[in-house]
Amino acid sequence: MALRCVYTDLDGTLLGMGGALFRDADGAFSMAQARGLEACQRAGAEVVIMSGRREPQVHEAARLMGQASYIYEAGSAFAIAGETTLMTGDMGPNEDGTIYEQIEARGIPKLLFDHFPGRLEYHAPWHHGRVLSHLFRGKVDVDEANTLLGEHGDDDLRLLDNGAIGTPMPAIDGRTHAYHLVPRMVSKAGAVAAHARAQGYHPSECIAVGDSVEDLEVAAAVGRFFVVANGPERDAGLRAALSSWDNVTVTEGSMGDGFYEAIVSTLVERR
Predict the structure, then answer these.
(1) Which of 54, 56, 100, 177 has the most C-beta neighbours closer than 10 Å?
(2) Residues 6+ apart with CB under 8 A from 267
């Protein structure tokens, strides 16, 4: 069966050190990502970024790669050839402002900051300019956070873990993580499934590549999911979650090398 679509995370997956397309995990120059993208183009497979980044950033990255579709703000929305579909359920922009502004007006970020003092903060400066979600960094228990939201009557929202990042925090031992506060139904998995339906792709015709627990959930929407090696190396939670899936492969390579490995191994298998 032909490979028709590849869904890929950006930071820590397609991109190398410092979020660079032409760097590997150690910062050395690398063409692995470009070769993987070239292989997709030759095979006629669409490449769709699924990122926690805000829309202008993801749009520009997709444009540079020659791709017309992308998923942004951790699955809050996806775009196909300039047409955007929100995945935020009953929440949407209204007279009270953007979804970001509505969440802020309800005091949810302050609630979380007060509950996790020193362990959660805005992921500056990348939290600016968002319209569908809030972006934090730190090290917290997402189940505890979501229980807190429920107790305060805010269970229409959820906090999700988008993986380990390189920005340290004084009160955090080990790696900090990026967290998104989103409408409850939002997920990368949901956006991937909706995009595939819109494009007429069967899950078996699709693969995905990522490095976080949230990325891993996309395994439910594709035929095969690849976790780049740096993901479980940095995140014990991701390591523990791997056994829950029977269609997941951990690559030998990290970041862009792992992305390239996922593409080439899939194309070889499907010859």
Answers:
(1) 177
(2) 3, 39, 43
- Tens digits of residue pLDDT in 106-129: 999 999 999 999 999 999 999 999
CATH code for 99-183? 3.90.1070
Strand partners, 70: 49, 79
Cα separation, 181 vs 132, in Å, equals: 9
The helix or strand, by DSSP H or E, that contains position 112, with its residue range, turns out to be: helix 108-115
Compute the average pLDDT of residues 138-164.
Answer: 96
Q: Quick check: helix, strand or coil at residue 218?
A: helix
CA distance 242 to 270: 24
pTM of the predicted model as reported, rounded to 2 decimal places: 0.95
Which residue, among 3, 6, 5, 12, has the nearest Cα to 210 in the 3D structure?
12
Q: Rounded to an integer, what distance in angstroms lies between the CA atom of residue 1 and that of residue 178?
A: 36
CA distance 224 to 231: 17
What local confidence, expressed as pLDDT, does residue 211 receive?
96
Backbone dihedral region for residue 62 (phi beyond 0: left; psi -120 to 50: alpha; all else: beta): alpha
In sign, the C-alpha dihedral spanning 240, 241, 246, 252 is negative
Calculate mean pLDDT across residues 70-74.
Answer: 98
Q: What are the domain boundaries of the chain?
A: 5-87+187-269, 99-183
